[in-house]
Design brief:
By secondary structure, the protein is α/β, with parallel strands linked by helices. The chain folds into 2 domains: 144 residues, Periplasmic binding protein-like II (D-Maltodextrin-Binding Protein, domain 2), CATH 3.40.190.10; 97 residues, 3-Layer(aba) Sandwich (D-Maltodextrin-Binding Protein, domain 2), CATH 3.40.190. It is built from 10 helices and 11 strands.
Length: 250
């Protein structure tokens, strides 16, 4: 009888554990102002490459519910560490400085930093001598913003809370150019507003590795890495890539 009771208890514990695992909810943090990687559609729903990757990872981890939490870029890492969400999938560059605050997964795509400027500025150059005294825009707290401040101290770096606000100032004539992720610029240059602008010079940073952030020491990192490897192996990643770009960004 005791053995039978122990069996029933073990079975009950196992079922309870399985039910908990099946009912798991994870929250992903996204800026939702960085198309085509993350933004909102006409109905206010969060969409984009980052969102699709996050959903695919949740599906691979068999998470019952994956919720999206939108956060301003400036406070997005503090929000993660304050447990407002569980992982951050918002085109975050993996840097040594950020590694002090969060843990990163393996990179889920690679980017480059490149200037854009008006097509009419045919003589635009990306060297420090030409850019001296010019006003160049970038999003605040990004690799582009840091590059302008560290590598081009004689250039006036104008930093913005969102990439979209930088584009507004460019089209209003308040900027000589913008430095940002190439694949974000690529998307904007295809738009009506971006049609009078073009890439200038070669990328100034060739390999910007983008990762998913979790809180320091969180075992969720390993689960995400495993799921990331699986979506790359089974073709899910390629389908998401091809939805947004006619070339691989992996």
């Amino acid at each position: 009888m005791q053995t039978y009771k122990k069996f029933l208890l073990a079975a009950a514990v196992s079922m309870a554990f399985s039910a908990t695992a099946m009912a798991e909810t994870l929250k992903m943090g996204i800026e939702a102002a960085y198309p085509p990687f993350n933004n909102k559609d006409a109905s206010g729903n969060v969409v984009g490459f980052d969102k699709d990757i996050g959903d695919a990872l949740c599906a691979k981890m068999k998470v019952e519910k994956c919720e999206v939490y939108v956060s301003d870029w400036d406070g997005i890492i503090p929000a993660l560490n304050a447990k407002k969400f569980d992982f951050l999938v918002s085109s975050l560059s993996i840097t040594d400085e950020r590694k002090q605050a969060v843990d990163f997964t393996d990179p889920y795509y690679s980017n480059k930093l490149q200037f854009i400027a008006p097509k009419a500025t045919a003589d635009f150059k990306t060297d420090a001598a030409y850019l001296k005294g010019k006003t160049i825009g970038a999003q605040r707290a990004t690799l582009a913003g840091t590059y302008l401040e560290d590598k081009l101290p004689d250039t006036t770096a104008k930093l913005y809370d969102t990439q979209e606000n930088a584009y507004l100032d460019l089209t209003s004539g308040r900027l000589d150019g913008i430095l940002a992720d190439k694949y974000v610029q690529y998307e904007w240059l295809k738009s009506k507003d971006g049609s009078a602008y073009e890439f200038k010079g070669d990328p100034v940073v060739e390999s910007d590795k983008i990762g998913i952030a979790v809180r320091k020491g969180d075992p969720l990192r390993e689960r995400l890495n495993k799921a990331l490897a699986e979506i790359k192996a089974d073709g899910t990643y390629k389908k998401i890539n091809d939805k947004y770009f006619p070339f691989s960004i992996e």
